[in-house]
Design brief:
The complex is a heterodimer. Chain A is built from 20 helices and two strands. Chain A is mainly alpha-helical. By secondary structure, chain B is an alpha/beta fold. Helices cover about 25% and strands about 25% of the residues of chain B. Chain B has ten helices and 25 strands. In chain B, strands 3-2-1-7-19 form a five-stranded parallel beta sheet. In chain B, β13 and β14 form a beta hairpin. Classes of the chains: A mainly alpha, B alpha/beta. The interface between A and B is large, with 38 and 38 residues.
Chain lengths: ~450, ~425
């Protein structure tokens, strides 16, 4: 059914072969550029400037070579300043700066890739004008890197989602679930956010993301900027929808039917499910890491609320701003983005979901402690083939439960249903029912 | 006390784990020449189809055996001295035992066809045969052909394997409808449709006459019996049933018939020596339903606790309970519970195939009590069906409550209402 060990390029990509590693490097490289290209460019420039300095030290001061190097150094600094800081420049330097302006930088890679989407950016701008009744001039609107990212992400989810649905055309659960994730990604995580964008800079608002996965939606500074309706929505989702829906359906209502991380994992990540580690060691590591991230974000959020009432120039407030920045850098960008997606060809499609996502941690605790969802096993029919465990993207050893006739109630289970779909003896069924009753 | 188990399949390994569950101290050694670690034999086909690697089919992590203090020896036993309680091994030194468990498994049947021992003719029962098949078919394409002989579960699985790798396959089945030992004619024909749809050259009511070598001395063609047609091929897989693999203990003091004879406590005629799994031959049953040799994963698993209990001084009696089995014919799931296809006196059946689908239900009943179920393409709950049989429910009652048994996934179309309507319509007419 799954064919993940066939020969050739496909096999190499799906099984940590050469092309698999290359793909991982490309994905990681793309994410690093997307998030940090300007910062990387500055690092490169400052190294160039240090190089100039050390060369200049070897030259006699006032000589022609010395003056040339000094001018180049000045231009290098100013060209970066010009591009990123838009400072006033002396007229005599402008023509020389323009030489540098069109030169190669890492940031220009992302900018070039974004330009074809300018019409789309203008379109969104016009649609926003319709909603707002305060028209803005859209003719100069340019596609940002985030529009590029959102577009590519949504494209991959849609195209590879359709491929997935064709593979599982006889499986109603897989088809419905995939329609759901594609729908949520296209409508709720790509188009709608642009239309209900808020605040200075038209920040897209995501109905399908909330605290703690998108922690800023419950940070005091952000809540103040959001329109009341959106702030209420985000809060209700985090604190009401999560426990209620998870009680009825298990964590799968979010993780494999709504969430965008899940959408990519289940569509583009389909080829890499089997790469998730099934070892008991991984399970132990996962339990520690995911709950650590949860504790960290809970503490940070609480402290930010405390800090919001304190002096904005004080050490505590400033310190909390630093902490917030580092969380966003390491966890939201580094862990969720770079590692989460970049590691698909190396460790499967759910590395973030399994080892880091604090939302998953909360949903998982609810699922295990008081949800009606479980995967039941059909008595003694299991013959331990291992298809279920092999294709479990969360690294759950499903087989152990199936062969001993135990229901599977695990915090990490996202209810993707692949175990039940690949089982050749019909031993597994995703079910909801009264907590106390063993259904199987 | 040292217990040695020869064979690390489901029967051997379950015996080992059940022994360890009951006694933390005794020494347990499991010997296998086939594989280093226990793996799921029914999953061999998935390794060939590249859905899984061998490691994925091993139910226990390697450190499990160390933790359980179950010693594993990878070697072939060459002879057993029952007097001295000693085993000779091919590569390592002799081992002595206090208790011996023979879990030697099955081998593919050969019925004396000319050419049946040619290179390129093989069964599909163990890792060595998987490796052989891999080697021989690795570079095959549409110009090659593999012939499968025997229309049972192994045969249909090998056909699926060939279809997945796009290797032309001719499937010789001597019965009139597929697997008629367990499937009725309607069910069998449904399976035949499925097999044909996957591009298999299925030949019903066709026997193998002989296997012919080519110039290199390896398989080059087969000839059928009925029409004497000659079919070129490079590999022949014999899937005409399996028999107990008792070679090792033939011509010893051990009583061996088709398999190693055991009583209902899994004991052989020799004190301290047990046999279980495919290789064991149990006394004929009197309740009309049980075969004498059980070559199934499920029964092998059930033998283990009985052997373990009795080695440790218990008096456990093997009770098969209500029969159950499952399989898959390409995309069609198969579940069976109870007595189906035994042709007991007074037995009747109710059969219904969903129009336009490869899904069907067959209920066997006798004296107004339901005694068996066959489900194809629909999943039914093991516990519910077996309970109905145990409690001797009437057919009417079962039909009225059929929805309780359904185990298909969410959003799947359910047919129990249709079944109910059809059944009661039939009753009325």
């Amino acid at each position: 059914m799954m064919n993940h060990t066939e020969k050739g390029i496909l096999s190499s990509t799906r099984n940590r072969g050469v092309t698999g590693w290359i793909l991982a490097m490309v994905l990681i490289g793309f994410y690093v550029l997307l998030y940090w290209a300007p910062e990387l460019d500055r690092v490169i420039v400052s190294q160039k400037v240090s190089q100039f300095d050390s060369e200049m030290k070897t030259l006699p001061a006032g000589s022609e070579e010395y003056k040339n190097l000094a001018r180049q150094k000045s231009l290098t600094i100013r060209s970066i300043q010009h591009r990123y800081y838009v400072k006033g420049l002396e007229e005599k330097y402008k023509p020389l700066v323009n030489q540098y302006k069109d030169g190669f930088t890492l940031n220009s890679v992302i900018t070039t890739m974004s330009q074809p989407l300018n019409p789309m950016a203008r379109g969104f701008c016009s649609m926003r004008n319709v909603f707002r009744g305060q028209p803005k001039d859209c003719s100069k609107e340019k596609a940002s890197r985030w529009l590029l990212y959102g577009f590519l992400y949504t494209l991959f989810v849609t195209v590879l989602g359709i491929r997935f649905m064709r593979k599982w055309k006889n499986n109603p659960y897989q088809r419905m679930r995939t329609v759901s994730v594609i729908g949520f990604q296209v409508l709720i995580a790509f188009i709608l956010p642009e239309l209900i964008a808020y605040g200075k800079g038209d920040k897209p608002f995501y109905l399908s993301y909330f605290w703690p996965l998108k922690p800023e939606y419950f940070f005091p500074s952000e809540l103040k900027q959001m329109p009341t309706a959106l702030a209420l929505w985000a809060t209700a989702m985090a604190f009401v929808a999560v426990p209620v829906l998870t009680y009825f359906f298990g964590k799968r209502w979010y993780c494999s039917w709504v969430c965008g991380c899940g959408a990519l994992a289940e569509t583009a990540g389909d080829d890499f499910r089997h790469l998730s580690s099934k070892s008991s060691l991984s399970w132990r590591i996962e339990q520690v890491s995911i709950h650590s991230v949860l504790v960290i974000i809970v503490v940070i959020t609480a402290l930010l609320f405390v800090a919001s009432g304190s002096d904005k120039n004080g050490g505590f407030y400033q310190g909390m701003m630093e902490v917030k920045t580092w969380y966003m850098f390491f966890i939201s960008m580094g862990f969720a983005g770079v590692i989460g997606t970049g590691f698909y060809p190396l460790a499967g499609s759910r590395v973030w979901c399994r080892f880091g996502c604090p939302q998953a941690a909360i949903l998982g605790l609810i699922q295990v402690l008081f949800s009606r969802f479980r995967i039941t096993t059909n008595g003694d029919q299991c013959m331990s083939c291992g298809n279920c465990s092999t294709y479990c993207e969360m690294g759950i050893d499903v087989r152990q439960y199936a062969m001993t006739g135990q229901d599977i109630v695990r915090a990490s289970c996202v209810g993707c249903g692949m175990c039940a779909s690949v089982c050749p003896r019909g031993v597994l069924k995703l079910e909801t029912g009264p907590r106390s009753k063993k259904l199987g | 006390m040292h217990v040695i188990i020869i064979g690390n399949g489901i029967a051997g390994i379950t015996t080992a784990t059940e022994l360890r569950k009951r006694d933390k101290k005794i020494k347990i050694t499991v010997i296998s020449g086939e594989s280093e670690y226990f793996y799921s034999r029914p999953a061999l086909m998935y390794i060939y189809m590249r859905d899984m690697k061998l490691r994925d089919t091993q139910p226990y992590e390697k450190k499990f055996f160390k933790k359980q203090k179950i010693n594993l020896v990878k070697d072939w036993v060459t002879s057993i001295d029952f007097e001295q309680k000693r085993l000779s091994l091919q590569g390592s030194s002799d081992l002595e035992y206090d208790y011996l468990v023979l879990a030697l498994g099955s081998k593919a049947n050969k019925f004396g066809w000319p050419g049946q021992d040619l290179p390129g003719v093989q069964g599909f029962v163990n890792l060595q045969e998987l490796e052989e098949l891999e080697r021989r078919t690795e570079n095959m394409n549409e110009n090659n052909r593999v012939v499968v002989v025997g229309g049972g579960l192994i045969g249909v699985e090998v056909a699926e394997m060939m279809a997945r790798r796009n290797i032309p396959c001719t499937f010789l089945v001597r019965e009139e409808t597929f697997w008629n030992v367990a499937l009725g004619p309607g069910e069998g024909r449904m399976i035949q449709e499925e097999i044909l749809e996957h591009g298999i050259d299925l030949r019903m009511q066709t026997n193998l006459k002989e296997i012919r070598p080519g110039e290199n001395g390896e398989v080059a063609a087969i000839q059928t019996a009925e029409t004497e047609e000659v079919i070129d091929c490079q590999v022949v897989v014999l899937a005409a049933g399996v028999s107990p693999n008792a070679e090792l203990v033939k011509n010893t003091a051990l009583e061996v018939d088709r398999g190693i004879k055991v009583d209902n406590q899994m004991k052989t005629n020799i004190e301290g020596v047990y046999a279980c799994g495919d290789v064991a031959q149990q006394p004929p049953s009197t309740d009309g339903g049980r075969p004498v040799i059980e070559a199934l994963w499920y029964t092998g698993k059930m033998h283990g606790p009985v052997v373990a209990e009795n080695i440790l001084g218990g008096q456990a009696v093997y009770d098969r309970g209500i029969w159950y089995n499952s399989a898959k014919f390409f995309e069609i799931d198969y579940h069976t519970y109870g007595l189906v296809g035994h042709n007991l006196p007074g037995e009747k059946e109710w059969y219904f195939r969903v129009p336009g689908e490869r899904k069907s239900i067959r209920i066997i009943h006798r004296d107004n009590k339901v005694i068996g179920f066959n489900l194809l393409g629909i999943r039914y709950r093991d516990a519910v069906c077996r309970q109905w049989i145990e409690k001797e429910k009437s057919l009417d009652e079962v039909i009225n409550n059929l929805h309780e048994a359904n185990f298909d996934g969410e959003f799947y179309k359910k047919y129990e209402t249709m079944f109910k309507e059809e059944y009661f319509k039939g009753q009325a007419s």
